[in-house]
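Hey everyone, long-time lurker, first post.

I ran two proteins through the pipeline my lab uses and got sequence/structure pairs for each. Pasting them in order. The first:
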Amino acid sequence: MGTEVTRSVSPPTNPTAPSTGGRIGRFRWVICALLFFATAINYMDRQILGLLKPDLAKSFQWSETDYSQIVVAFQAAYAVGQILFGPFIEWVGTKSAYALSIIFWSLAAMSHAAARSVFGFGGARFALGLGEAGNFPTAIKTVAEWFPAKERALATGIFNSGSNVGAIFAPLLVPWLASQFGWRASFVILGIAGFVWLIFWFLFYDSPETSRRLRAAEREHIQRGLPVGNEKPIPWRAMLRYRQTWAYVATGIFVGPVWWFYLFWLPDFFNKQYGLNLKAFGPPLVLVYTFTCFGSIGGGAFSSWLLRRGWSINAARKTTLLICALATVPVVLATRVPNVWIATALFAFAAAAHQGWSANMYTVVSDIFPKRAVASVVGLAGTVAALASMAFSWLVGNILQDTGVYDTILLLCGSAYVVALAIFHFLVPRIAPVQVS
């Protein structure tokens, strides 16, 4: 474990300068919008299979364990991709890494249309997971480069809400596309969206240091408080010396599998628990993921608001994380409520709380580590979370194969965040910058 000292942070040259907008310019929020839309596309592409699962399971005679194996293929590739993308981003740069990631995952999404078997779907999901693994490490790195510390939680919450918007639009688009053009066309049409996004990425993105669209005042605002010194990339292996890295990784082990469960199994829950089909479970899913938008932006905005009121980073982030953790607990009752809309409300609050948690926990990485270490830490944690999610998906498939009910699964989901926060607080009593050598 490495020796920790506080990073020196230069005081702002103009403490009264506005934190957003105004005279300093707003172009950094255009970059945030690009991250938002990329994340929305990312989630639409990954959610199609979960929405089609009840129908595809009948057509291809999948068992619960067959489907869990397809899910595991995605998560295995995601695990590999997360650990590789940190160094890859540092090697080729943010702009190229994001472009290559979305090209790869868009082609992989379209390849599902050619699948005919469990192995075929598993192969397509593996390729999709490998490409999609680049989204969050690259986006978090971009936020660290383009936003000062006090704006990062809000910027992260905004781009992270793209996952919610993608999850909202998928239940609306996929049933219509499948009914009009067939399920194969659903994968192809949504896969094309990534290539449309690329046009805007190449038009608007450059680093803050070289962007011609960035005003001098806004560039100064972005760079205010950033450490000056060695910017040599740090491999993820070097980050294992710091207990803060292990703390962040530990939270992913507990909460990562829960979010994967909501994405890949929630349509099946509504199908099994309440008999809803592809067209009928759209409204409950839309409501769940609409709430997650408020959770993602609200969670980031709340901790930023506490910081503006003079709270320390440690108090602001952990207070918000505690609120989010407690809000996930009632989901354990979802199998015991009398109707689908109460169950929907419980999932909506739990999923919204997850996104509020994520907006702050992602930001904690840039609170603690210099930006040259951010992508590696996020990628390492994403890999471990994906491995844990593989195990959880296998467990879910076997529990459903044996019992057909979700009670035990939801008990695990509802307790995960409280346990994760307790572990994080034990390992990181105080959130503060560290010097990484």
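...and the second, right after it:
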Amino acid sequence: MDSISIVVLPGDGIGPEVTRGAVRVLEEVARQGGLSLEVEEYLVGGAAIDRYGEPLPQEVLQAALDAGVVLLGAVGDPRFDSEAPARRPEKALLTLRRELELFANLRPVKTYAELADASTLKREVIEGVDLLIVRELTGGIYFGEPRGLETRLQGRVGFNTEIYYDFEIERIARVAFDAARLRRRRVDSVDKSNVLESSQLWRAVVSQTSEDYPEVELRHILIDNCAMQLVARPRSFDVLLANNMFGDILSDEAAMLTGSIGMLPSASLGGMRNGGRVGMYEPVHGSAPDIAGQGKANPLATIASVAMLFRYSLDRDDLAERIEQAIVRVLRDGFRTADLAQPGTLTVGTDRMVEEVLKRL
């Protein structure tokens, strides 16, 4: 059997802690599923800047391109906040997305009954929430040109460009509609078409694309209304389709429905290669430098990202479900990391939580 190459990029802050445990789960489940893995680990982000003077060395980028499957911990380090964009850890993340052509980000948001009381919202609001945020990842204001900081006659000015081509909108819309076909067959497309021309094109292209999916209901919703409805009536959503910036903001908002941002996985997907889908898998949470090295970090989002890796890049739904059910059983048995701690539960550290998941695989 040919081995499957996977590049692991632990990154910064709590990234190495949560990634270490997730790799143990990855290797154990692969063993159970009869898969042969070749796992290679590299420095990225602030850790790479410290060692190599740049956030994404060419060797690391080439390894990611060769493998086509990446597990990422987190990037971000406040020590570099005042540096130029090219010298910040986040530059590695944006470059990986662009070079791997990862145009679609999938962020499932599902509330666990065991964690309903951990959310800041009422139990009756969040119980039964099961939605998927589909975020366009390689266009929009994060990549648009021109951009920059300048001094002009009137003073200092910062500027960015929100730009989308019709083909970029169509391909991400198809990802959302295809996903909805396998769910509850409804897509809410988020825009700001009452103000932005880029959103007017977004709405037009999504509407046109929807004609190929007559079985899927399409609703258009403005970003401000969507942000409000997401906390008022989150069960009303099935698939949320959004551009790069709107999807970034909404997915972090939606994370709090689950009780902690430490519970949300994500998959960034591109095209097909060598019989599998190119993908980068990472937790939604950041590097959390305030708790790094203390063994407090919640590894469940990273472990759930491994489940998405099996599902989307390796086409092994059975192994993905095995991991997801293990997470459910751990929560049902009362184990919690500090971000999820509740009366009557047992608060454990990162490594112990990983051990409990492994026991239940």
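Reply from user beta_strand_b:
Welcome! Quick read of the second one: The chain has a mean pLDDT of 94. The chain has two domains: 1-104+260-361, 120-258.
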